[in-house]
């Protein structure tokens, strides 16, 4: 099943089923960005708007993109403010859908579905203002090495989505190649376990 189709199917349960990665990512995003100043945000892979909801309390303008019609439909139901614009688009294709430059580009839990990391970094760099930030929060590669991946139950079937493993060095090298400076790298753990970190977050700056 294509990734787009899988998220269309997952959408009705995405917000409600047990998902520690989704829940931790929300905390990570707030903790990482609450002290950063930004007015305009480009959010890629916004899904059901879990993070758009918080971002719109801090920013004056949000442009949120996803290729799943059904995930977007839920996000639109949650957030109807005029300053939040939702757009259906595949971020593996040129980001021609906006000519604006933003203070912040965010992506959460989407890069595991994208093979060509360098393309995403190049596009993010081109859509940022000088001094702007690129924030990434993703399933930690250590978890991927142990077999964790995006999956959900549809009836009695377990649907596993196509994923790509990006090593920490891949993120750092793609950032450097695009022209970014690394501002912060953090690893986030489940509170009640001694397992490897669940999430990696990186904050890059466009110099
Ligand atoms: C795990 S969900 C994360 C949603 C949201 N960012 C969050 O943290 O809850 C991944 C999202 O990325 C979207 N996505 C995956 N590949 C994409 C692509 N190539 N272009 C646009 N959206 C994509 C999916 O449709 C899905 O909504």
From TrEMBL:
Q: What keywords appear on the UniProt entry?
A: Methyltransferase, Transferase
Q: This chain belongs to which protein, by name?
A: Class I SAM-dependent methyltransferase
Quote any Pfam family the record assigns.
Methyltransf_11
What species does this protein belong to?
Answer: Christiangramia lutea
The answer to whether UniProt assigns keyword NAD to this entry is no
Q: Does the keyword Hydrolase apply?
A: no
Domain Methyltransferase type as annotated: residue spans:
42-136
Q: Which GO terms describe its molecular function?
A: S-adenosylmethionine-dependent methyltransferase activity
Q: Which SUPFAM superfamilies match?
A: S-adenosyl-L-methionine-dependent methyltransferases
Entry superkingdom: Bacteria
Q: Which GO terms describe its biological process?
A: methylation
